[in-house]
Structures
1.
Amino acid sequence: MARPLTSQGDGETIGSQGVVKKAEFIKIITRALYSLGYEKSGALLEEESGIPLYSSVVNLFMQQVTDGKWDDSVATLCMIGLSDETIVKSASFLILEQKFLELLKMEKVAAALDTLRNEIVPLHVNLNRVHELAVCIISPLQCVRLGISGQDTEGTKSRSKILEKLQKLLPAAIMIPEKRLEHLVERALDVQRWACVYHNTWDSDLSLYSDHQCGKNQIPSQTLQILQAHKDEVWFLQFSHNGKYLASSSKDQSAIIWEVKENGQVSLKHTLCGHQKPVSTVSWSPDDGQILTCGQEEVIKRWDVSSGECLHVYEKSGVGLISCGWFPDGRGIFSGMTDRSICLWDLDGRELECWKGQRTLRISDMAITDDGKRIISICRESAILLLDREAKFERLIEEVDMITSFSLSKDNKFLLVNLINQEIHLWSIEGDPKLVSKYKGHKRTRFIIRSCFGGLGQAFIASGSEDSQVCIWHRCSGELLLALPGHSGAVNCVSWNPANLHMLASSSDDRTIRIWGLNHFNLKHRDHSNGSIHHCNGRS
């Protein structure tokens, strides 16, 4: 380490705003160089700048700890000039504890006992730890539990760890924390991310060379494909968990499994037929290997995704099924019924549980949290039921108007609720339900319109709209960012690809599904025999 010079520039500042102290700035860079292993560069910066990383007393203290000169290091610690006696005692405890442990490892039991009695105990710090150390003297097993072994007799690794603990304990002005420069840079990037309204790029795309700012072009806003295989209104669609498939259901009594290719192109994989009524919803199994389709007040069918084969039909005599979903472990399914009950089945169709009463409505969404503990359903026109299966406890979300649909966030902490009054409400469902935000701007007068979370960290809200548009809001601010034209009928449902930040799908009464992406694509029109698919250049 370089010897401190008489003038270290403590009062100088750098930067356009004059708030960055030059000495601190240099020290942090020096600390980063040493941390990265650039010893010569760090030493040269100290010498050339005349600003040492540490004072001579601190350098001496660190060297004494490294050399195992415990008594000397405790004495030097008192010379550093710490005003907080608690910090001095805590640091002394760390040093003397290491002294005690190394004496035990060298089988100097009497000296270790003397250190414990006459040096550690008088500090009156961490008495529980003192008792553990005392047990070490008579119990080798306790020594093993505390990480003391016959290996590393020189204590090099242990001493390095002590220095790390001391750096965290002592004031940063005395011992600059490890990776302080990296921390400052990461905080700066965090601020830029949060300030970026359109932020929708992976962290790997961030650069230190310029300030980060996404534009609208990072939001899927251009029609890349139009899928035209359904013969009637498309009511529902949902991407698989891995983003490799898209499923859609229609008034034409069918559901379709679409495959998302590696190049982003979407092609028809299977058409699932057999329902006698319109297919209202679909639900992917946790492993995406199977899918459920729910006929409107009819039956639920379970299908194999690879083959398109129907594996099982779930039905209940005299009762229609109106919604469907999977157990988190994939070993069973649940459904809302027309008699307002909720039933759970195993995969073979055996009924496991059934909650009767006003648990759901005839038109109802349902969800279950990833831990399998809570079932969520619309239980009244303006209320959502949060049913705890284990605690047999119920909570309600009471809304101001009729609820038409809802969507559960990926982290199971939030619920997105669509209302008949043309508002979408975001609720926190951790603990007592709390209304967090409202989103306005879409149109809804007659039909069920569905919304979804999406983008990086689910930072955006997307929704269909009866005016043929797809609306996208910023989740935190509630600002309407985009209204995407293109469909020629009401947009009933949207789904954001969980594996592709820049892919959004929408389904409409115009019988089509639109795949939205970034506007730098320029794909030519083309037809496929397995369902009509148009590739677009972004214009509708």
2.
Amino acid sequence: MESCYCHALGQQLRIKRSLFVGRTLEQQQVHLELLDTSPPRADEDWLKAKSYNEVPGPSNLRVLSYFLPGGKLYNMNLIQMNRRMREMYGDIYRFPGLMGKSDVIFTYNPLDFEITYRNEGVWPIRIGLESFTYYRKVHRPDIFGGIGGLVSEQGKEWADIRNKVNPVLMKVKNVRQNLQQIDRISKEFVDKLETLRDPQSHTLSTDFHDLLKKWSFESISFVALNTRMGLLTDHPDPNAATLAKHMTDFFNNSFKYDVQPSIWPYYKTPGFKKFLQTYDHITEITTSYIEAAIRRFEDSQNQNRDNKCVLEQLLAFDKKVAVVMAMDMLMAGIDTTSSAFVTILYHLSRNPTKQAKLRQELQGILSDSSAPLTAENTKNMPYLRACIKEGLRITSITPGNFRITTKDLILSGYRVPRGTGVLMGVLELSNDDQYFSQSEKFMPERWLKQDSVCPEARSRNPFVYLPFGFGPRTCIGKRIAELEMETLLARLLRKYQVTWLGETPLKYESTIILSPYGDIRFKFEPTV
């Protein structure tokens, strides 16, 4: 029994190997050091559980064949891959480690989610994008000084950064001090939309999703750097559009080199070298924004201002952390928030009765549509927040949450040794009637605390709905994203009746995030 365990554990502790060739010995050992050092489990439950080798799943050679032309996973996106594998192997399966990666257990059992989260410890291990870590820590240490940021760091190094950042980004009061400016940007978005709207057809003469990306980048630039890019004016910052293009390339290439099997850790292919150039372009543009902001702070250091942006607040603690965190905000704040907003607006546009109910709430807050949103009048927006939750339930930004187990766990009746990757498929379960009654319906009421219309509509298992993750590694941008979406949604739905004009339901492309694509058209008809 113990020898079988040690064999499985030995296989899984491949995690101690470098995520890429060339890491230092200290970096190679960091994940191993975070694992529980207690003896192997020998309790009755563990002994009764099925062995790790019995977890369903393909062999290494078979899974490689799946990705070849004609294979079962060939040319599939992340969502399609997950669904196909679940169809073949069930609600728990093992995806074998390839090209130096460790095995990953995929589970669609919320009891497994809870067990995994409850045993993750104070320093949860979540492997980020390996190419991202390689770029910052190996390829360009001259710029990043050995700091990978919250995505890449683990253990004490991660905790040190998170402890510095949490008071700035996770405290509601601190984030909502940006409400006045975020509201101003949202008003500018509505004004811009109005100039692009045909008064007869009420349709737009531009790509709505691209316009949303400008809004999200304008918003996050202010929060992170106290900088306005002018993206909703006639004189936008010329580098912003270039950065948006590079970010699209980044998401596509991350899927190719970080999710799909790739030989880049052993041989830098021409395609991977081009990907590194994309990283260079993103770094160059974001660094220029950050350096300009720092110079501006230095020039105005004698001015007393109550509201300081994220970069300025973090500079007081650690300049390296401040710069990396601001850079990550600029990178992450474009596609994620805009994609989530399209999803929420889409569901409201397809459900006019829900939209009318939301508008009634907004009219009570803003009797005059041009009145400002304030800390006081935004306290009472339960239905608006319920609409956001419901949209993210149906389509979250990512299909699941990932952890490396630090202890020996029993998941769905199988022994899963410490050091194993676990991917928890929250998106699939959020759209399952077993966990959400009438899951195919857009029902914001299921999130209201006192609503007798659908008392059974909300899942009884809190681990099924986790669009921003859970625990110490909850998404650091959660509060900002919520503020941005609440503000723009209030502005748009207070002024317009929105109708979906796409000929088909909203489609998504799945790389490392879910992003709407295709025929994204709305009608914006002014309300009385």
